Amino acid sequence: MNIHLLENADNLSKEYADWLVDYVGKTLEKQDRFTIALSGGSTPRKLHELLATDAYKDKIDWSKLHVFWGDERFVPFEDERNNAKMAYDTLLNHVPVPASQIHVMPTNLSPEDASAEYEKLLNAYFVPADDPGGTDFHFSFDLVILGMGDDGHTLSLFPGLPVVHESSKWVTSFWLEAQDMYRITLTYPIVNKARSVTFLATGEKKAVVLKEVLEGIKNVDLYPSQIIQPEQGELHWFVDRAAASKLSR
Ligand SMILES: O=C(O)C(O)[C@@H](O)[C@H](O)[C@H](O)COP(=O)(O)O
């Protein structure tokens, strides 16, 4: 695991943007597409806005990006809570990713149909045609960007819910009582097959839970972020000083 410790949220966005430019560039020297799953929440906003500035826009070959989401609040696209809307407003409306390569989690179908359709799409992207059962399938996304809630959740894997352990599907949906809405989310097995997984966590409200997630006893029901452990890929945590303030190292 790699921990990138930055002074504050602005520095973190800049460090992450530089890391991303480098990683996308190196990956595209070896292959001609880059698959990325974006996160919802508020933390990635600054990063998105930075990537959309003139200073960064031209450093990434956006035409090669294939964009997905890690999870979605099951509200219409126009709703301010919709994760895809946030990403369009802050980044995707400002950079030239071909529309056919942007794969929003649908919220205009039933939650079950939406997750089944998204899973089918991921299958088509990641399971080699000569290995339909996916038995020799090593990697999914080139990059998954994740956030972590103050309660230790990531994606829509919330503490104490069965969805944390879902392993028979890559995408699932469920009713989230606490927020009075359905959620659609990637599950841990497909995320753990990514080549690189990066968490972004800032602010003192995350300090206690970050310590538990990184240094505490493993208990994924209490701290679902702990279930994210790439099998063969890299795990990076980008944290600011406030979020890291309780870590012992
Ligand atoms: O849709 C969502 O709510 C998420 O994708 C969620 O997992 C998010 O990443 C964390 O809650 C962190 O959110 P913040 O960045 O706002 O702290």
Q: Could you provide a short overview of the structure?
A:
29% of the residues lie in helices and 19% in strands.
Please describe the topology of this protein.
Blueprint: E1 2-6, H1 9-30, E2 34-38, H2 44-51, H3 54-57, E3 65-69, E4 71-73, H4 83-92, H5 111-126, E5 143-147, E6 171-176, E7 181-186, H6 188-191, E8 196-201, H7 207-215, E9 234-240
Parallel strand pairs: 1-9, 2-3, 2-5, 5-8, 8-9
Antiparallel strand pairs: 4-7, 6-7
The structure holds 6-phosphogluconic acid (6PG).
6-phosphogluconic acid (6PG) is lined by residues 39-43, 70-71, 73, 83, 147-149, 153-155.
Overall average pLDDT: 96
For this structure, the CATH topology is: Rossmann fold
Largest sheet: 6 strands, parallel
Query: Given the helix and strand composition, which structural class is it?
Result: alpha/beta
List bound small molecules.
6-phosphogluconic acid
Q: Outline the low-pLDDT stretches.
A: none
Could you tell me the strand content as a percent range?
15-25%
Number of helices: 7
Shape: globular
